[in-house]
Structures are given as C-alpha cells and as structure tokens.
Amino acid sequence: MKQAISKLLLLGLAAGLATPALADDEEVIKYRKNVMKAYGAHMAAAGAIVQGKVKGSLVGHARAMEATTKNMAAMFPAGSDFGETNALDTVWSKRADFEKRAKDTEAKAAAFAKAAGGSDAAAKFRELSDSCKACHKDYRKEQK
Ligand code: HEC
Partner of 115 for a Cys bridge, out of 42, 49, 80, 124, CB 3.0 to 4.6 A? Predict the structure, then answer.
C-alpha cells in the first residue's frame, strides 16, 4: 500500500508538471474507486460478522481497513476532479476539512483493528461506518 501511495503521489506530481495529464488522472480516479469499493466490501463482510450472520475473520477485515485507510486524502490529488468521478468539488475547495474527515476515518479504522478481537468490536465497527458516511454526505455526489 505504501508503494501504491508513493506511486499516486508521483502521478500527482507528474500531473502537476506536465500539462493536462488526463490519462494519469483517469488512473487515479479508477484507483481510488477500487480502493473505496474494497472498503465497501470489507465493511459489508465485517458487518455480517458483527451481526452474527456469518463466521469469519473480523480481525482480518479490520486490519485490512486499518492498512488501507492511511493517507486516504492522497487518493484525491489536484487535477483528479474531472472525468468519471463522483467526488464533489468541495473535496478540493474545502481541502482542510476533507483531510480532517479522512484522518478521522483512518483513526476509527485503527481503533476498530485494535478492538476487533474483543467485546468492543461492534461499537468500533459502527463508529468507523459512521465516519465513512459523514464524508460521503459532504464530499460525494448523491448516489441514485
Ligand atoms: C474523506 C472522505 C471519504 C471517506 C472517509 C470515505 N469515502 Fe468513500 N468516497 C469518497 C468520495 C469523494 C467518493 C467518490 C470517488 C470518485 O468517484 O472519484 C467515494 C466513493 C466510495 C464508494 C464508491 C466507489 C465506486 O465504485 O465508485 C464506496 C463503495 C465507498 N466510497 C465506500 C467507503 C467506505 C466503506 C468508507 C469508510 C471505511 C469510505 N468510503 C470512506 C469519500 C470518502
């Protein structure tokens, strides 16, 4: 993941230097959608375990969330606001707040990973889930 992030940063840098580096921006958008989809899948899987519907590795899903939510805002470099994206312009115009939301989710994912083996797991799972929703409410186009 660290490597992927560095690559992203490089892409972002390249996009800033070269005039419209559309192809790179498209790759960044595709990449962050795939990462977000992975979050969605891990959270749905973890939710089913938390609700007792299935048995599975809650710790595994929680650790995956912890590992992949680090430096989330880097998936939204300047210039990646055009094309096939559902990110709102506020991702870039209200950057400080956006980054705060990303950090909040990162912290909640770490707390969930820490609690996943214990009795606090369900509560920490819900806090993480609420943190996802809070960002989507303000920074993602409404899903139809
Ligand atoms: C800091 C803000 C932020 C946080 C936190 C965040 N998201 Fe997102 N998410 C977005 C934005 C913005 C998009 C739209 C991305 C795009 O279309 O370029 C998105 C898109 C998605 C998508 C749709 C991906 C697709 O196929 O287009 C899913 C699923 C998703 N997020 C799940 C999650 C989950 C689960 C969490 C919590 C673990 C989470 N997100 C946390 C901002 C956030």
Answer: 124
Write down the domain spans for the chain: 2-139
- C-alpha span between 40 and 119 (Å, rounded): 23
- As a whole number, mean pLDDT of residues 16-28 equals 67
CATH topology of domain 2-139: Four Helix Bundle (Hemerythrin (Met), subunit A) (1.20.120)
pLDDT of residue 48: 98
Query: Tokens at residue 99, please?
Result: 């980054």
What is the 3 state secondary structure string of 50-98? HCCCCCCCHHHHHHHHHHHCCCHHHHCCCCCCCCCCCECCHHHHCHHHH
Dist. CA 36 → ligand 1 center (Å): 5
Q: What are the tens digits of pLDDT across the range 43-59?
A: 999 999 999 999 999 99
What CA–CA distance (Å, rounded) separates 98 from 95?
5
Which residues have C-beta atoms less than 6 Å from ligand 1? Answer: 29, 32-33, 36-37, 39-40, 43, 72, 85-87, 91, 98, 101-102, 105, 128, 131-132, 135-136, 139-140
Confidence of residue 1 (pLDDT cuts 50, 70, 90): low
The number of residues in the chain equals 144
